Amino acid sequence: SLMAYDEPLSSDEEKKQLEEEEEEDDDVEAGPLVLPPLPEPDRKQQRGEARSGASLVVFLIAVILGLSYAVPLNQRVGHLNRQTRRVYFVLIHLLAFGALVCLERILRGDPGVVRRTEKTCSPMPDVVRDRLREGRSLSDLRNVVDKAGDSYCVRCLVWRPPRAHHCSICQRCVRNFDHHCGVFGRCIAGTATSGNLPFFVAIICIGYLAALLFVVFFIWAVATN
């Protein structure tokens, strides 16, 4: 039987193969890029704002409930029938409970932070990859925007949708960003069914509704006295 032997490589082919091998060696030496840690949030400011916001909500709840039970208001309400009083106190306590639920969701819920995943981190823009390999800072780079309108944040190192924004206090990119709330110390973001924006809107509405409910029943009680 005939033995098949590799034909000797020409000088051009040998040169090309050598270049390919050198490129492969470079890839191996570079290895996978290790992303730097995410920027550290301003936790002191976050905690201070969150404490003030929580204290404000609890204080307003205590004021409304305290006035509802206080004398002489309670005596005036006593002139109303029992069913009316019961409806009022059930409603006012439900609103207080709803405010506490909204407060918890604002402080502990996810506003829509863009997490680092394989999907959000790739493909990495060449300019960012080159700087990371060289150990150079990214602080002077602008965010990279693709044709679809998505942008690559050079601080979080993630791809994010058009309405996302990087919060300078929380130091995270957040989808459907609305604003950073200085009262609760959290990013407020989302849609009607996502994020913490619905709870933020709800707690404001609850505050106005509770105040209105108290005033209406107070006037009603005085008028029937």
Write the layout of secondary structure elements.
Elements: H1 11-30, H2 43-69, H3 73-77, H4 82-108, H5 118-121, H6 126-134, E1 144-145, E2 151-153, E3 158-160, E4 165-166, E5 173-174, E6 177-181, E7 186-189, H7 197-223
Antiparallel strand pairs: 1-2, 2-3, 4-5, 6-7
Entry summary:
With 225 residues, the chain is mainly α. The chain has helices spanning 11-30, 43-69, 73-77, 82-108, 118-121, 126-134, 197-223, and strands spanning 144-145, 151-153, 158-160, 165-166, 173-174, 177-181, 186-189.
Please give a structural write-up.
Helix content is 53%, strand content 9%. It is elongated. The chain has helices spanning 11-30, 43-69, 73-77, 82-108, 118-121, 126-134, 197-223, and strands at 144-145, 151-153, 158-160, 165-166, 173-174, 177-181, 186-189. The N and C termini lie far apart (119 Å). Helix 4 (82-108) packs antiparallel against helix 7. Strand 6 and strand 7 (186-189) form a beta hairpin. With 225 residues, it is mainly alpha-helical. The strands form three sheets. It has a three-stranded antiparallel beta sheet with strand order 1-2-3. The protein has a two-stranded antiparallel ribbon with strand order 4-5. It contains seven helices and seven strands; from the N terminus they run ααααααβββββββα.
